[in-house]
């Protein structure tokens, strides 16, 4: 179970991982985009970490909503609206909750995916963060339906997200600035899918006590 205190710690850990990988993410973005994805994400999670210390509530929904609104207002480019929407959609399915179990987590991820698809008018196979998130949800849902342990479910999510991220190398971008490159976008890993993997993997490690 993840309570409000643990959730705040998870966001702090995500911020640290994004900070550690900000230059790498921007390097990936530089090959097919504006080259600022890592710096933008770092800025957003720094602002979010400041907010976390000010939130005095056990309400999960309030924390997720605050997270979403902060990212929308501080992260540049398309990443802010997409990640912000993801967390705000997650807030809608956690109203009045003070803790989360793996079923809640899967609901949040599904809501996040639906929100990202609607906001970005995008789908799988377009070389975006969806290409890491959707496989993660599929793998997690399958593990859940087979009555796997929480550890197995969380690891399945991380592993599928990593696999989806790596597969973006072979995808020709059809969304965002990367789409301007056409065939030349192939051979490059998508920065958004990479940051999505880093976030999901950090959640897994924190919940399992590996961070």
Percent of residues in helices comes to: 55-70%
- Largest sheet features: 2 strands, antiparallel
Describe the global form.
Answer: globular
Rg, rounded, reads: 16 Å
CATH architecture: Alpha Horseshoe
> CATH-wise, what's the superfamily?
DhaL domain
Q: How many β-strand stretches?
A: 2
Q: Proportion of β residues?
A: under 5%
By CATH, the topology is: Serine Threonine Protein Phosphatase 5, Tetratricopeptide repeat
**Spans with pLDDT under 50 lasting ≥5 residues?**
none
Look at the structure and give the CATH class.
Mainly Alpha
Number of helices: 9
Q: Could you say how many structural domains there are in total?
A: 1
Write a brief caption for the model.
This protein is mainly α and 211 residues long. It has helices spanning 4-20, 22-32, 37-52, 60-74, 79-92, 102-120, 130-145, 150-167, 191-207; strands spanning 2-3, 99-100. It is built from nine helices and two strands, in the order βαααααβαααα.
């Amino acid at each position: 179970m993840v309570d409000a205190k643990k959730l705040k710690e998870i966001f702090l850990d995500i911020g640290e991982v994004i900070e550690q990988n900000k230059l790498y993410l921007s390097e990936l973005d530089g090959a097919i985009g504006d080259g600022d994805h890592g710096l933008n994400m770092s800025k957003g999670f720094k602002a979010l970490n400041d907010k976390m210390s000010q939130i005095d509530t056990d309400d999960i929904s309030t924390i997720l909503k605050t997270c979403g609104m902060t990212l929308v207002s501080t992260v540049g480019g398309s990443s802010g609206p997409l990640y912000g929407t993801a967390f705000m959609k997650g807030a809608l399915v956690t109203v009045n909750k003070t803790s989360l179990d793996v079923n809640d987590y899967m609901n949040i991820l599904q809501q996040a995916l639906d929100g990202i698809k609607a906001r970005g008018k995008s789908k799988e196979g377009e070389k975006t963060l969806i290409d890491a998130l959707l496989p993660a949800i599929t793998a997690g849902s399958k593990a859940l339906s087979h009555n796997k342990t929480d550890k197995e479910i969380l690891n399945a999510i991380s592993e599928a997200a990593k696999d989806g991220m790596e597969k973006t190398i072979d995808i020709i971008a059809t969304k965002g600035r990367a789409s301007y490159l056409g065939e030349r976008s192939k051979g490059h890993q998508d920065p958004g899918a990479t940051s999505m993997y880093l976030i999901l993997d950090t959640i897994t490690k924190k919940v399992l006590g590996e961070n």
